[in-house]
TrEMBL record:
PANTHER family listed in its UniProt record: NAD(P)H NITROREDUCTASE YDGI-RELATED, NITROREDUCTASE
Protein name: NAD(P)H-dependent oxidoreductase
Family: Belongs to the nitroreductase family.
The keyword Transit peptide belongs to this UniProt entry's keyword annotation: no
Residue stretches making up the Nitroreductase domain: 16-192
Protein's UniProt keywords contain Flavoprotein: yes
Keywords recorded for this protein, A-Z: Flavoprotein, FMN, NADP, Oxidoreductase
Domain of life of the native organism: Bacteria
The species this protein was found in: Christiangramia crocea
MF terms in GO: oxidoreductase activity
Needed cofactors: FMN
InterPro entries xref list: NfsB-like, Nitroreductase, Nitroreductase-like
Amino acid sequence: MNLEVKTENYIENLHWRYATKKFDKERELSEEDLQKLLESVRLSASSYGLQPYEIFVIKDTETKKKLREAAWNQPQLTDSSHVFVFANFRKIEEADIDAYLDNIAKTRNISREDLKGMEDMLKTTILSFTEEEQRIWGAKQTYIALGNLLSAAAEFRIDACPMEGFDNSKFDEILELNSKNLTSSVIATVGYRSEEDNVQHLDKVRKSKSELYTIL
């Protein structure tokens, strides 16, 4: 398959995807498909590569029921196969940056001393943020990962629905995020669309290229 065909397929899959409102409750993601999504999200870009967040992937029925109650009873929470909860760090500590640098050194087989310049830059920049600034910055990083999830799901012909309509504090309580220095920022339900979901048949509405882009 040449590059042009792959590109056409990717664009076609983006047209195919939509924010699924009604999932097929009888269909679950295979372990293979779930792992493809997990790896796709793991490879997401983030500022400095730090990934100041964790992602909770929920399949447990009882937990999904609790989350549904905290999301104004939206059925996607229980009808989908899995719920992805993106949770950013409440506060980024020096130890978080050290762990990241240790990972770089191990992965690339270099010494920590070689990363001294990067260490100084990261700590000077990130640790100078207020806790609120850190939370806002971390939440922005989760949205990059969410975008990667949606794009990957479309490529694999898996349905997904990004969602901001949930009670953040209740999600944090249900998943015990406060004790983990985390707070939920955005979620996505993942599975397969129901044939009864009429939204899938609607034309996709987006700005035209001339309205959206300014090319200088």
